[in-house]
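Step 1: inspect the first sequence and its tokens.
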Amino acid sequence: MDVTLRDPAGAPRPAGPYSQVARIDHGDGALLFVSGQVALDGAGEVVAPGDMAAQSRAVMLALDALLRAEGGTLADVVGIRTFLTDMSRLAEYAAVRREFLPGAPPTSTTVEVARLFRPGAVIEVEVVAALSGGAGRTPPPATIAAGDGAVSAPGPAVPVPAV
């Protein structure tokens, strides 16, 4: 088993001294633990302060970029943790989440917090994704999908070691 902590090139930069992704390669698959994302623009400013739907969309796009940088997609998400500053706005977030995660829903935890680390931020989301069949590694040419450049390779489910 190999553990790598990194900030993938081309994906959002961390807003502090932490790694954006912890990747655990095990056998023919990998688990990706992606740090919590808030809606920040390229200058590190909060996108659409107070706007739950706009921030939810920006957060999902940031998560997608981080997953794609590691050879995954939002379809690989198996667990999601969401921190909202106002639980009464859960429906706004849920509507956007369904746009980005239309299939079987991953395991999920959603909690209300008093505040997030940036004024105006109303949501933070972190995910765990499971990649199988060598996704995220250099695949044979036949497994590279045309169009978006996403990597997909069939394979067994990622084995999860007992704790």
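Step 2: inspect the second sequence and its tokens, then contrast the two.
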Amino acid sequence: MPAHIGTFVVCPTAQADTKANPKRANFAYPPDIGNLLKTLNTFLEHFRIHFIFLTRIVKTLLFKMDNLGETIRKLREEKELPLRTVAAFLDIDQAILSKIERGQRNATREQVVKLAEYFKIKESDLLVSWLSDKLVYEVADEQVALKALQVAEEKVKYQKSKSKK
């Protein structure tokens, strides 16, 4: 069982009322965190439900729908950091970082790797966002963009399987 669930609880505890109605559950909120974890564990065991925690959902939305610049800005603002602090870490002018955040300039791969290190997030998450931005920029105006991306995916799979041999 994870040690940290999140900032707030989305799921009440449940105990099955099997005599009256086996499908019905009576919900009661525990008075403290110790009871919460115990009752949550009971709830999970009873219903055998696998939960996706809120942080994963937020992370997925953050990296999949925002462009890299928006992601960087959200990460920076979440930590209440000024542009100059992050720009200094990247060894770039804050005007350049501002343009990256606004989507007016592209970050380099090296900058993306440094940002992942700085914000203590997975490098692959930021790199995926960076690469997907590059792909979208190249194919956005094409009518056959999705088909081309599907073919490209197959080519990448083929190249990987070929290089393993």
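Step 3: confirm your contrast with the notes below.
The beta strands are 13-16, 25-28. The first strand starts at residue 13 and ends at 16.
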